[in-house]
Write a structure and sequence with these properties.
This protein is mainly beta. The chain has helices at residues 182-197, 200-205, 209-214, 220-229, and strands spanning 4-5, 30-32, 35-37, 40-42, 46-51, 63-69, 87-95, 103-112, 121-122, 128-135, 138-144, 149-151, 154-165, 175-176, 233-242, 246-255, 258-269, 272-280. The chain folds into 2 domains: 4-165, no CATH class; 175-280, Nuclear Transport Factor 2, Chain: A (Roll).
Length: 281
């Protein structure tokens, strides 16, 4: 579902200026307040905060995401696209983009008003942010709209007082894997080698029977060429972790002769390690 965009129509007002790292939120996660949409309340009783790897206006700006949501979200899934949940996701950064001294700013607002809503909306008037703590342990304070706002055909506002310990969407799971990634690492390297060799029989042997059946497609030759383009060569597993059922691999390789690095997720199904997700940069 494509994201709907809406023009930002007001600059956020920061209610309290805090020195970066001067305070922390060490209390358990808590939220008071609700999202109100078209006169009806939407409960968002869970809150999460996590740092972004780079800033929005400047890569060096400290930047965080704050997420209010209607159900628990696994830490590793926090920065992924959320489906079938209601949420408010805010981007916060400390930047000198709008003045001589760095100040906290809300730079993004992304929302889904109900779990049944097919898409999300982003933009609109940004909320007022009043923080009592922000630092490596978490974020705490209040974020609110002083009056109802309109976005497309909806009227909404929210007022949350919260404390959110800092999460890490990139945290390892389970225990570190041995050099080369152990069984999951060997399975992924074998898979990439089979792809680039164009060896369909070998690919079938590395996946579950129902997945192997898909490789009998009459269009598999054409599909395989596309898969090759999306799969690096010269893959090396440089790190990873696993809880025995899921494995996360840190890998390097080459695409079009250029070096790439990525993270690969594999799950153990019927004794077979199968890749379920890969991201490359």
């Amino acid at each position: 579902m494509p994201r709907l965009h809406y023009l930002k129509v007001a600059v956020v007002v920061i209610g309290s200026a805090l020195a970066a790292g001067a305070a922390t939120a060490s209390e358990p996660a808590s939220v008071e307040g609700v999202l109100t949409v078209n006169g009806s309340t939407v409960e968002l009783p869970f809150v999460y905060a996590y740092p972004e790897e780079s800033g929005f206006y400047d890569d060096a700006d400290p930047t965080w995401t704050l997420l209010f949501v209607d159900r628990e979200i696994a830490e590793r899934e926090l920065d992924e696209t959320l489906w079938e949940v209601a949420y408010v996701r805010l981007g916060i950064t400390k930047t000198a983009e709008f003045g001589d001294q760095p100040e906290l700013q809300v730079y993004s607002q992304d929302m889904r008003f109900s779990a049944e809503q097919p898409g999300n909306v982003s933009g609109g008037t940004y909320p007022t942010l009043e923080l009592s703590a922000i630092g490596p342990d978490g974020i705490a304070g209040r974020v609110f709209h002083a009056e109802p706002e309109e976005i497309f055909d909806d009227t909404f506002h929210y007022d949350f007082t919260f404390s959110a310990p800092m999460s890490d969407p990139n945290a390892p799971i389970g225990d570190p894997l041995p050099a080369g990634g152990g069984e999951p690492g060997a399975a992924f390297i074998a898979w990439t080698e089979a792809i680039h060799a164009g060896d369909i029989d070998r690919m079938k042997a590395l996946v579950l029977p129902e997945q192997a059946a898909m490789l009998d497609s009459p269009d598999i030759a054409q599909e395989l060429e596309f898969i090759k383009l999306m799969t690096p060569t010269d893959v090396v597993v440089v790190g990873g972790s696993s809880d025995g059922e899921t494995a996360l691999l840190e890998v390097t390789g080459k695409m079009d002769g250029e070096p790439v690095k990525g993270e690969v997720t594999l799950v153990r199904q019927a004794g077979t390690w199968v890749s379920t997700n890969a991201s490359w940069e």
